[in-house]
Design brief:
By secondary structure, the chain is α+β, with helices and mostly antiparallel strands. The protein has 2 domains: 2-39, 3-Layer(aba) Sandwich (YefM-like fold), CATH 3.40.1620; 42-80. It has helices at 7-12, 14-21, 41-64, 67-80, and strands at residues 2-6, 25-30, 33-38. The radius of gyration is 22 Å and the shape is elongated.
């Protein structure tokens, strides 16, 4: 589920916004446009970890698709006797 507050409600019920964010994301809207999302620290950490994993994966793909990088990797392997 998702909780939605307008800015005024969020300001007046800040403790409720924080409490709800422990179990669901809380969207804060102004004129029907989302201006903020409050999430728990656990969700934040999971999002950061997922972003890091995706960044690592993307970087690995770039290396694998770059012929110069492959040549360097092969040279390092030969040098190490692998």
């Amino acid at each position: 589920m998702t909780a939605i507050f307008n800015v005024s409600e969020a300001r007046e019920n800040f403790a409720d916004v924080i409490s709800k964010s422990a179990i669901e994301e809380v969207f804060i809207k102004r004129h029907n446009e989302t201006v903020a999302v409050v999430i728990s620290p656990v969700v934040w950490e999971k999002l950061c970890e997922a972003y890091e994993d995706l960044s690592d994966y993307t970087a690995a793909l770039e290396v694998l698709n770059d012929p110069n990088e492959i040549e360097e990797l092969e040279a390092i392997r030969r040098e190490l006797g692998l």
